Fold this sequence. Notes:
8 helices, 4 strands, 62% helix
Amino acid sequence: MSAYTRSYARAIVEAAPKGYDFAAFLEGTSAVARALATDRRLREFFTAPSIAKPPKERALEALGQKVGLDAFGLRFLRVVLQHGRLTHLTEILAAAREELDRSGGVVPAHVTVASAIGPEEEKRLAEALGRSLGGSIRLDVAVDERILGGFVARVRSRIIDASVASAIERFKERSKETAGA
């Protein structure tokens, strides 16, 4: 992550109004970032040096309004555009998420499950990990059928393997040890 992405992230956290809804901000700005990443015409429009900034500002504001961004979110997008960093919006938002987590005492956890889980299961898992590790947890969930069931969580440098695949492997190892005794 580059130095300027961290600068933008700190600025977002420090400049936001007290009690600001960062979840809505990240959801809206991430939707704009996805649109820029997936729509070739949008990307070409915003990166074309031959197109003046005012039409780009109007288009970006329309995009932001379409995804429900508030005045703060729209101002943020204008600043990013004015400084030529719009193509780096995804990186800036990742840094903002990290800064928000750090400032709020939230620990990110990468969790792998065997099949997709719903919001309620995700919430329960985050709460259980938070109780176990002592803190608030934000989950990044991935699916890998090879773990068969349960989950594998990576929180900072700690790995919690509660997968069925690992339990089977441990059972095999113990069976070999007792068979050889």
